[in-house]
Amino acid sequence: MPGAAFHGPTPMNRHRSILLVDCDTFFVQVARLEDPQGAGRAPLLMVGGSAEGRGVVTSADYRVREHGVRSGMPMARAVELCPEAMVVPVPRDACLRRSRAVRAVLDRVAPVVQAASIDEFYLDLTGTERLFEGAPLEATAHRIRERILDEAEITVSIGGGTTRLVAKLAVERAKPAGAHIVAPGQEEAFLRSHPVGAIPGIGPVFLEKLAERGIRSVEELLAVEPEWLARWFGAERASWLRDRARGIDPSPVDAGTERKSISSERTFARDLEAPERLAAELHRAVLEVGGGLRRRGLGARTVTVKIRDHDFRTRQASRTLALPVASDRAIFRVARELLDELRARRPVPVRLLGVGLSSLEGEGPALQLELPVTGGDDPVGIESEADLSLAKAADALRKRFGRDALVPGRILERPGSMGRRDTHEPEEEG
Amino acid sequence: MRFTITRQNLNEGLTAVSASISTKTTLPILSNILFRAAEEGVLEMSGTDLDVSVRLRVPAQVDEPGTLTAPGKKLLEIAKELPDEPVQVQTRADQIELRCGRAHFKLNGLPAEDFPALPSVSFDGGWTASGKDLLSLIRHTSFAVSTEETRPVLNGVLWELRDGEMRMVATNGHRLARMRIPAGPSLETTAQLIVPPAALQQVQRLFNAEDELRVSRDGNHLGFRSERTEVYTRLIDGTYPNYEQVIPKDNDRFALVERKPLESAIRRVAAVASDQTHRIRLQFGNDRVELNVLTPDLGEAHDEIPVSWEGDGLEIGFNANYLLEVLRYVGTDEVKLGFKAPERAATVEPVHAEDAPGMDYLCLVMPLRLVD
Questions:
Q1: Of residues A321, A374, A385, nearest to B241 (C-beta)
Q2: What is the pLDDT of residue A374?
Q3: What's the complex ipTM?
Q4: Superfamily of domain B2-114
Q5: In this structure, are residues A6 and A137 in contact, taking their beta carbons and an 8 Å threshold?
């Protein structure tokens, strides 16, 4: 029977069975569920910030996408492209609730579930073949789809294969509301049908370098002798590339590492240029991510500042510290330096500003206390006990009296606006 | 260029200079040593990795002045194995030729013009430091510098000259070492220099306690000079943090303890400590300190040694390696530990016999949080 060797009950089955469950236009679905009379009836729907407030599209339904609308596009532009579409704000709380409902279903069917973002989940079903009565993975995927639709009212697409990479690419073939499984042994053939840019981890800069060597598709990549790849890109990168092109990806589905980053960003109603306004916005973003970090009992070693200039050029700068930090003050110190670096390189009006925290660590192993050696011209990276106590005290006050109970003077001029920030959980909607 | 040199002098010069040259450089000239025979009876050898430069003058019979650069490590390998006889060195275009007994070598060199100029530091406005003082300051502090790249100033040793004192301070944020030495009436200079530890290593290697060193700063460079040896280094830019403010002044619990037994006890119990944190717990109380380690999945350890304790009892955690490190540098038979609270910096100081000359030396170690 076809597929039996793939997901069958045989104990000889050595390869992994990985699924990626991706909620179709998640924010749009939730918006419709939340407002069945309004958004629920709109044939064309976009979710995101307002065009007047220069917001961006968070998600658009498939029919709106046919007009050329994409996630991350300025709403004003999207409205031009598809004027008949209805625009609604992101229903944040409902999205979190629905995401948890989807997760709850997955937790019941798979031993290992890793949330890659609010609407994407990797499952590792290796070894569960008997539970599904030896059904081929494709049948299992469809069954999971139906259960999620039943219990969480969310339509999902599912990609599957022997690696995360293959599952990630397969889910694109599955959308909308379908399942696409790549059988073991078929990974390379499946990869060959993709452009190199589809491989996660190949960014625009690398893509350009590949294009300079005439490599645009995975097919073309695989035609190049490995020695040449090594000479062009270094041995390590070359072997990484070769592996990915053949569908090899050893990274596990790991329930323990799912929260990879916490970030907060905001598109301004008007481009900002004044240093004190940018500092205030930065501080505001730091309070968001810092609070989120501490609520989860984590510390962060990497701080990233992202800006989008008025001409849509997006730039970012990161710094990784020796020890994780968790206080707003320490995060702000690092973020401030990064912002200054970015601004010094290109001092033009800024359209969007964001702060991200990654390399998240539990507070457990970070036991080493630091000397508060600050002062000089380089106070970065060191967090004193006082910084941490202050942050924790502020958290307690905000929990009791509300988010705006305690606001740094720098951002006081617009009280109450903290609640309108766009806080992104790890990644954007896929 | 043509000169004759004893094997010992050649070997000494090459050994001194070749330690300063890069082994993994993209500029081939930087793996070469510059030879310069200009004065009667003196051969000059220089090496640099662009951050730290070394120049040494050794006696040689100069028959024909000139300059050339030649691969340092190769020459050193050769010089080490030459018989104890005079070595005749001669250049032919860009080649250097060595003859010693029946051994004969030709090595390809590079023109001296390609060699980077060593920093020009004028010693007119400098100051004098005794080799003994300088070496002691370096030895007692440079171990504590940070190796993290996030705070460049902490990658260097702070060298301060003020109030008639020379001070060196280094910290990585987890521990700090500070040493002060009276510089006598001769030192009127005031300076605050952040010196890369690689340069201080060369100073330690190339100067002796008996040397009187001239030291001078010129712009962003610092130079050390004795009769035969010069070391130059780029200084680290920036302002060193105010270290005085982190030195606790209100520690009110003290332990006097024999250093060697304490070190052994720490090493013993640390064998069971976590490989990541090296965490040990010290419980100070009436006349003894208990050392405890509890590492899940591994096991536990307990030991105790006598101390003379002053103040309320205290339980505090440390990275055993940090404690052992500062104890080693403090070095005296008896040491004094000072504490305020479990999450505040501890001080470690030498205790000198009453008749022995003391050194003004202080180390700080930040504790590990005790959470469980």
A1: A374
A2: 61
A3: 0.78
A4: DNA Polymerase III, subunit A, domain 2 (3.10.150.10)
A5: yes
Reported confidence tier of residue A362, pLDDT bands at 50, 70, 90: low
Please give the positions of A annotated as active site. Answer: 120
Kindly state whether residues A39 and A127 are assigned to the same domain: yes
Distance from CA of B249 to the nearest CA of A (A): 14
Assigned CATH topology for domain B248-365: DNA Polymerase III; Chain A, domain 2 (3.10.150)
Final residue in a domain of this structure, among A147, A166, A183? A183
Has residue A255 been placed in a domain?
no
Q: How far is CA B369 from CA B317, B338, B365, B372, in A?
A: 6, 17, 13, 9
List the single range of A283-287, A340-344, A361-365 with lowest mean pLDDT.
A361-365
Containing A314, the helix (H) or strand (E) segment is strand A314-325
CA distances from A95 to A89, A429, B133 (A): 12, 11, 68
Q: Rounded mean pLDDT of A340-353?
A: 92
Give the total number of structural domains in chain A.
3
> What residues make up the domain containing A48?
10-183
Any B CB within 8 A of A386 CB = no
Partners of A264 in the beta sheet? A355, A423
Report the CATH number at residue A346: 3.30.1490.100
Tokens of B218: 């010129």
Residue A12 contacts B, CB cutoff 8 Å: no
Query: pLDDT at position B268, please?
Result: 96
Which residue does chain A place closest to B243, by CA atoms? Answer: A373
Q: Is A320 on the interface with B (CB under 8 A)?
A: yes
* Separation CA A152–CA A144 (nearest Å): 11
Which chain A residues are Cβ-neighbours of B171 within 8 angstroms? 371, 373
CA distances from A263 to A259, A293, A357 (A): 11, 10, 6
In a shared domain, residues A69 and A207:
no
Q: Does domain B127-244 have CATH number 2.30.29.30?
A: no
- pLDDT score for A13: 43
In a domain, A250, yes or no: no
Inform me whether the pLDDT recorded for A428 exceeds 80: no
Is A378 an interface residue toward B (CB < 8 Å)?
Answer: yes
The secondary structure of residue B65, as a DSSP letter, is -
For B109-151, write each residue's pLDDT tens digit: 999 999 999 998 998 888 889 999 999 999 999 999 998 766 7
Residue A16 lies in a domain: yes
3-state secondary structure of A349: coil
pLDDT surpasses 50 at A9: no
Task: State the pLDDT confidence band at A238, using cuts at 50, 70 and 90.
Answer: confident
